[in-house]
Amino acid sequence: MLKILINNITLPTVEATVKIKKERDAFTSDFTTASSTQPFLIVENQNTVAALGPSNRFTKKNKEYKVSVLDGFTIYKGILYELEPVDGYRKCDLVYTNELLDEYSKKIHSFFPEIEIENNTPKAYIEATSVDFIDTAWAGYVENFVSRSFPEVYFNFPTFKYPTQFGELKTDSDWYKYKGSINYKVLGVPPLNNNVDGLNNQNVIAPFYYLLSPLYQSFYDYLEYSIVGDVANDKVMQSRVLIHENNLLVEITQPENDETEWQTVYKHHLTIHPERFLPDWTLAEYIKILKNDFNIEVVVDQVTKTINLNYVQDVYWNTPVKNINGFKYKKPLYPKTNTTSNYLLKSADNDDFVSITSNDLTVVFREDVNTEIIETSFKQTPEVLTKSWFEKNGVGLSFYNYLTDDTYHITSYLNRTNAIAGSGGIAEVYFIKWLQMLLAANFFEVDFICSQREKSILENSRSVYMENQSFLVKSIEFEQNESLYLVLAELISFNP
């Protein structure tokens, strides 16, 4: 049965007040948490005080506690929220997930090491200095990276056209020799910002992290989990890179030869600082973005230490079906009305969108009270970068392939694009089949009376068979009743 433990003390919950909901990952925008659906009661006694300390009766301030949750035969990590005292009780809420709860709140950049390209101690980033330094190691470093791919390397140096990065340049500008590109290369070798044939400030070198690199750096390298599933092996996903607007430049102001005049040159900082080149997302936010923006089912298994990522509209067509005809339920099945008329899938900057109905996909902007909106965290990367593009909402996406890097921004790779609309776009490849299925589906709520074993079967089955047909399991909500569980399951019926 469900138990909440803190400091090796089992909290005396009032069993009849505890209701927990678990939603199947493919049907929710949240990421792998079970939670109470209503505040529940914990008896106020000596054990409660020993575990949680004094009640918040006099502080009127909600408290949070890290707890362990025994659900069936598995122990999870969770957070207990103490809301308010009630005569003889404490009213609380609960969320819990796998053993990685504490890791999910960390920023993705914190999993990456700072990299000193000359293998010395990493140094803090500075924007300006009067102390000159030698940055020639950058040429060999970039040259060693450009022909390598993910997951062998977690970032690379794609070339992007950005002619206005330093504004309208004049001959007396510090950047008048700027080539108009980030990571400008000649035969795979970047000219540096020091004096080359009498030219200063030729280039801006900056790393761009691959979209999947935070997944591998956190789960595989740091947490020592295996990464499995179609997403991890998808060459298109492996080739996507995140577009940021920071660089490695340091402004150096120094005297000319006669020391009566001063000049400004720019050189590349010798340390790569991940926080400058990755979005400011926590690990949970990052996984949630991957999951929602590319319609991915994410399953973290703390027993086998694997994270499994598969495209929802691929895996659900071939999912095993569990026969539950022997399970007890209270009333006949009647479908609930599905009020969603269409899905509006759009980019973070709202410039790229499609409307998906049960039989159509169109670039006409359709939105009403029955529209379900899916807004991604990304935006298309234009052929030429501009300051106004960076000011728009969203993180840019591009592809990197060193064989075609001379074309600068790569608009498509293996017949896939980073646009939402269009052939090979995100809507067509990852969403339309699944969303049109949901629009045509019937939804049912079923009340089961379950043993621990039967509850576990419902929790761990994507699809079940009863009433002479199969259903997808969207969610289950359960409460304890002595040795049994009362389970409200939301099921979906459809014809693929």
Could you characterize the architecture of this molecule?
The chain is 17% helix and 34% strand. With 496 residues, it is an alpha+beta fold. Among the domains are: 3-97; 108-283, no CATH class. The strands form nine sheets. It has a 15-stranded mixed β-sheet that branches. A four-stranded mixed β-sheet has the order 27-26-25-28, covered by helices on one side. It has a three-stranded mixed β-sheet with strand order 10-17-18, with no helix packed on it. β34 and β35 (469-481) form a beta hairpin. It starts with a strand and ends with a strand. The mean pLDDT is 91.
What characteristic shape results from the CA principal axes? globular
Distance linking N and C termini = 37 Å
Low-confidence stretches: none
- Mean pLDDT, to the nearest integer, reads 91
The biggest beta sheet reads: 15 strands, mixed
**Number of helices, where a helix is a run of at least 4 consecutive DSSP H or I residues:** 11
Find the structural class using helix and strand composition. Answer: alpha+beta
Estimated radius of gyration: 27 Å
Helix fraction? 10-25%
Q: Could you provide a short overview of the structure?
A:
This protein has 496 residues and is an alpha+beta fold. Helix content is 17%, strand content 34%.
Distinctive features:
496 residues; alpha+beta; 15-stranded mixed sheet; four-stranded mixed sheet
